[in-house]
Amino acid sequence: MASKIRIKRSSSASAPSSLLYGELASSFGSGTQANNGERVFIGNASGDPVIVGGEYYTDLLSNAPGVVAAGANASVVTNGFVPILDRSANGNPGGGGVVNNLPRVDMWNVDKVTINDNKIMTNGTGGTSADEDLIFDTMGSGHVINPDNQRLAFGDGKDGTIHYDPSANKIMVNGVPWQWNSGIGITGGMTIDNVAISTNTIATNSGSVLYIDPFPDGLSSDGLVVVKGSLQVDGTTTTVNSTTSTLNDAVIHLGDVTSKLVVMAAVASGVSTISVDRIVGINTGDILKLPGLPGAGSTAVTSYSATANAEGNYVITFSGTTTGAISTTTSTNGIGITVTHAYDTNTDRGISFSYNTSTGTGNNKTGFFGYNDSAGQNSNAPIRSWTYIPDATVVGNVATGTRGILDIAGLYYQSGGYVADNNDVTYFDNQGKLVGVGGTTAGITTSNWVLTTNAAGVPKWTTTLDGGTY
Description:
The protein is mostly beta strands.
């Protein structure tokens, strides 16, 4: 009959109080991490029981390598289990190089965060943001870094992406349009297609035309642009293509003697030149005003370049030297240099207009009325007279051409230009000027010339009064 050898044993979940050196014992009570159930013990040289195994530990190791998602304790689920890393396949973590037999598990959970497949997700069940939020916290001055050319995508279909392009040195945004439902603060400027916005300037970076279209889906004349506040238009040409223009100004001012120039390059202290955007209308003697210029910010132009330099700017030389540095930013120089022109341009001031006298482009005409800076054309009218030219030629703001006809209901002379006795007459002097003179209070007793008419009814002066024959 076979013999049976039994070791010490207990149905409890506690360890034996002592064991002989090399003596074995086993507990069969339900084991947990907190007790000594389902353990195997061996006595050491001091007679103390030492755990060397047992079902509690083999149950922890009962899953296949790499299995976590479907893993479980073979006996008691709440006892947990020990994952066994799977090293059956290679991997390339982060593209840093292939690692042979890369250790893996099929899922990993840390508190409320789960890593599964290629997803990092929260696993809370409380239904609150504390359970559902996923937080990246560097706890200090560290950064959450997205490497070069690695796209951060939005939407299940990667509908929108953001990434840093090192070759362009730009953050690239691609995909569907973005909708901002809050205010946006941008420092340093921005570019939208071919439109650049920086500080208080909107400019085009493609060509020289910038469009403001309030109604793109309509015709060129549709829509309304509203400008709040005052409007200043620099440049050399302003074209209004609307058919109706309304002004509330009681007096319209033409031919201003001030203009603005933009500082195009930083100016150091102690120099006598400045780069500007244009020189149209600039003449020597004009006064420049801007903080940092000599003369407490006011100095005169002594010379200027007629052509642009390599940067496309024009250089003005002025009297004296700058008392401080001048920046190109509007935060330091406002809207630029104020120029007060101090030179007679010998140009006219007024309004020119276009019309057609019949049909065909050959009948297009240009008319002018206003202040004539030069002496009269085909007349002795002095300079700075008012004139009207129905068929005018306007070149360099100077209007020439045959004067037109004035159609009015009455004409008043200034005081001193006539005798106030209600019955003056007018005549042309030898300069062609119409003069008011005469009257009963200034009568004479001896006749010199008498005004009469010839047979055609044309007024003529004569020294003979003929009573005829009988």
